[in-house]
């Protein structure tokens, strides 16, 4: 039986770029083929539970602004929330969802009760997923909201918190496994510090490495085939977060020998907070073989905190989608809309409109990147720019047996005299814009 939450809103359809209907897709056509795969297969879009169904619209200065009939701490509320969530997935025609344990059920009075609640909603989800065909992109555990985690989870000075976090993650992986989740995410919400004055940074990083190893061992033990994803973020809520950015996490994974076991979930807004562009983080992950999945959103460039807004600029996303296509695509990852409507956007349809716009600009960026690659002149530019490296003498510099002295002597012998060449940035910027 329908909950009625979305009133008489009909399923969102593709109407084309000319459409002025705010509840229609203008670019996202799930079945449209791009490079032999459908848009839905390329993007694998997901709706997240937390921003849409758990966050009440409160902020640091203000009370909740959203009135939702499922706000409450009972399992009845949890089931109503799930009913509405699956109605929203169907209205949007989105094939995946994501959740934290804490988003979907009340924690109750004990870990045991939390575990029972989670197992119960997992069964409820299972039936709904079967009926609707919606799949789980990833599950995760909320190891940052409860006061017990105020000094971190795996990185807490108190070993009991480490143990509690391990128990919570075990339950969350079990639920994700049972639901056939394609991935499992670890975002280190409070795995960092407020001040070094009270922090043993060395110890905390070792604890974090150990925790991640335990998670991976468990994954193999239960036969979970999904990918373990770490989500980098430089700060917020802590002043300094250990999983700062892609490059930092790579170093961390290498240190603990986990770089073959883990991939990364890259969030647009986190890249911005780390002082990078999104395409930088994606390109870095691709180059290291670590691209896992994406948290699609955008960040305000002035605020300095994680604003989790819906993406709304295809031109800005194009370079990232170029990297994604060149890097072999997202699957088994996807595009999770880790984005929320503003707290003044209190109507049910605002939730839909946010996703419609976000998905549309991602579809636009995907199509533009595909056309850019197809047309070929951009790729040719890059090939040409590095073509000097095809010469035997150049190749020899990169491979043995050449030495620094030998290279040095070649400069005089062959009269090596480099001539500056234009980097043509403006030409390239204009070229890319032709495809949006
Ligand atoms: C917070 C993170 C979080 C993760 C999931 O900034 O983006 O939402 O994606 O724990
Ligand atoms: Ni995220
Ligand atoms: Ni975030």
Structure, briefly:
With 436 residues, the chain is an alpha/beta fold. The chain contains 16 helices and 14 strands.
What does this structure look like?
The chain is an alpha/beta fold and 436 residues long. It has two domains: 33-375, Divalent-metal-dependent TIM barrel enzymes (TIM Barrel); 379-433, no CATH class. The chain is 46% helix and 12% strand. It contains 16 helices and 14 strands. The chain has helices at residues 39-43, 49-54, 75-92, 101-104, 111-132, 159-178, 201-222, 246-255, 268-273, 278-287, 314-326, 348-375, 377-385, 392-398, 404-414, 425-433, and strands at 13-14, 24-25, 33-34, 37-38, 45-48, 96-100, 135-140, 183-187, 192-193, 227-231, 240-241, 262-267, 291-296, 335-337. It has an eight-stranded parallel beta barrel, surrounded by four helices. A two-stranded parallel sheet has the order 1-2. The longest helix is centred in the C-terminal third of the chain and has 28 residues, at 348-375. The protein is globular and about 80 Å long. The two termini are 42 Å apart. The mean pLDDT is 97. The structure holds D-xylose (XLS) and nickel (II) ion (2 copies). Residues 100, 140, 185, 187, 231, 233, 267, 295, 306, 338 line the site of D-xylose.
Relevant terms:
single chain, 436 residues, alpha/beta, TIM Barrel, 2 domains, 8-stranded parallel β-barrel, two-stranded parallel sheet, 16 helices, 14 strands, 46% helix, 12% strand, globular, binds D-xylose, binds nickel (II) ion
């Amino acid at each position: 039986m329908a909950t009625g939450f979305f009133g008489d809103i009909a399923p969102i359809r593709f109407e084309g770029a000319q459409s002025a209907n705010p509840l229609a897709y203008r670019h996202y056509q799930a079945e449209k083929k791009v490079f032999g795969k459908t848009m839905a297969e390329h993007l694998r879009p997901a709706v997240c539970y937390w921003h849409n169904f758990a966050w009440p619209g409160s902020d640091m200065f203000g009370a909740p602004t959203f009135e939702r009939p499922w706000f409450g701490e009972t399992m009845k509320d949890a089931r109503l929330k799930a009913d509405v969530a699956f109605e929203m997935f169907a209205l949007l025609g989105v094939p995946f969802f994501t959740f934290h344990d804490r988003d979907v059920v009340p924690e109750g009075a004990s870990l045991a009760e939390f575990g029972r609640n989670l197992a119960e909603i997992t069964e409820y989800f299972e039936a709904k997923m079967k009926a609707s065909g919606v799949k789980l992109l990833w599950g995760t555990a909320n190891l940052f909201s409860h006061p017990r985690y105020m000094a971190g989870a795996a990185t807490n000075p108190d070993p009991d918190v480490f143990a509690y976090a391990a128990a919570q993650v075990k339950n969350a992986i079990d639920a994700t496994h049972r639901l056939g989740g394609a991935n499992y995410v670890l975002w280190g919400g409070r795995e960092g510090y407020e001040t070094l004055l009270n922090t043993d940074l060395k110890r905390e990083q070792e604890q974090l490495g150990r925790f991640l190893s335990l998670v991976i061992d468990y994954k193999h033990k239960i036969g979970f085939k999904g990918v373990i994803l770490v989500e980098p973020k430089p700060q917020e809520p802590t002043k300094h977060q250990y999983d700062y950015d892609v490059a930092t996490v790579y170093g961390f994974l290498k240190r603990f020998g986990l770089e073959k076991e883990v991939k990364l979930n890259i969030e647009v807004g986190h890249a911005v907070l780390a002082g990078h562009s999104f395409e930088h983080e994606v390109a870095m992950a691709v180059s290291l073989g670590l691209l896992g999945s994406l948290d699609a959103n955008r960040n305000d460039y002035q605020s300095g905190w994680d604003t989790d807004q819906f993406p709304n600029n295809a031109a800005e996303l194009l370079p990232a989608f170029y990297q994604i296509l060149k890097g072999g695509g997202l699957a088994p990852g996807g595009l999770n809309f880790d984005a929320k409507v503003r707290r003044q956007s209190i109507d049910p349809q605002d939730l839909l409109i946010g996703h419609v716009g976000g998905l549309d600009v991602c579809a636009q960026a995907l199509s533009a990147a595909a056309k850019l690659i197809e047309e070929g002149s951009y790729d040719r530019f890059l090939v040409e720019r590095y073509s000097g490296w095809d010469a035997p003498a150049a190749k020899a510099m990169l491979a043995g047996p050449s030495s620094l002295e030998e290279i040095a002597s070649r400069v005089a012998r062959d009269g090596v005299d480099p001539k500056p060449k234009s980097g043509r940035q403006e030409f390239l910027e204009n070229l890319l814009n032709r495809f949006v």
